[in-house]
């Protein structure tokens, strides 16, 4: 169960504000009311009004005024001693909040799907670093489902995903377009195929695949469903990284479906062959964030991406 409030709401309204407590402590340190006003950036009438308000709340005199200036009464000295701990804690809280504001301004936490993290974000982050050399950027590469989870939990400021739909619980923006390619090793029977592989045949073929939570696999399954194909058969291999899928396909384990960004070099150098298919495998890449407006650093990176 949630813990109860440490102070009753009605009692909160009877506690002097921090500035009033600071006035009391300043008088206790030997300053006059006029000096206390100057130290705190207040007018003398405002300081006098605060003292009177505290005295009404306490039901007794806290500051004695005389021809030689002002000084605390015994009751005022007691309240000033109590105020010491409150004001010290308030100073620590203010410093902590300032540190958080500083961290937010000088740190950017990013999570991205493997395709975006490996092939697009490096150039975006290089431009960001050149424009903001004092900002520390951290990047975690993970599948799209985990990116969305990290953004939802607030453990990262900005995410990049490649799934077929926009996450309902997050704000998002399309930042690029991509296309998946069906690729095989040169010795595979599909390598010399001249007619497109139908959606049903692709769904019925055991592929080298990423894990189910990956954006690439989710998009393939959505594209096959849109083309009227049955549910895909289980993969021949299920691997957790793009590089592992590429390596397995190159070794002849079976056809794989990967971003053209990930296999461009393999296709150019003949290690893999792209197979024509009768399925639309184009997709959108999205940036996702949790709040209505992302923070300043995240907004700046989005402007570079756009």
TrEMBL record:
<dbReference type="Pfam" id="PF00126">
    <property type="entry name" value="HTH_1"/>
</dbReference>
<keyword id="KW-0238">DNA-binding</keyword>
<dbReference type="InterPro" id="IPR036390">
    <property type="entry name" value="WH_DNA-bd_sf"/>
</dbReference>
<dbReference type="Pfam" id="PF03466">
    <property type="entry name" value="LysR_substrate"/>
</dbReference>
<keyword id="KW-0805">Transcription regulation</keyword>
<dbReference type="InterPro" id="IPR000847">
    <property type="entry name" value="LysR_HTH_N"/>
</dbReference>
<keyword id="KW-0804">Transcription</keyword>
<dbReference type="InterPro" id="IPR005119">
    <property type="entry name" value="LysR_subst-bd"/>
</dbReference>
<dbReference type="InterPro" id="IPR036388">
    <property type="entry name" value="WH-like_DNA-bd_sf"/>
</dbReference>
<comment type="similarity">
    <text>Belongs to the LysR transcriptional regulatory family.</text>
</comment>
<protein>
    <submittedName>
        <fullName>LysR substrate-binding domain-containing protein</fullName>
    </submittedName>
</protein>
<feature type="domain" description="HTH lysR-type">
    <location>
        <begin position="16"/>
        <end position="73"/>
    </location>
</feature>
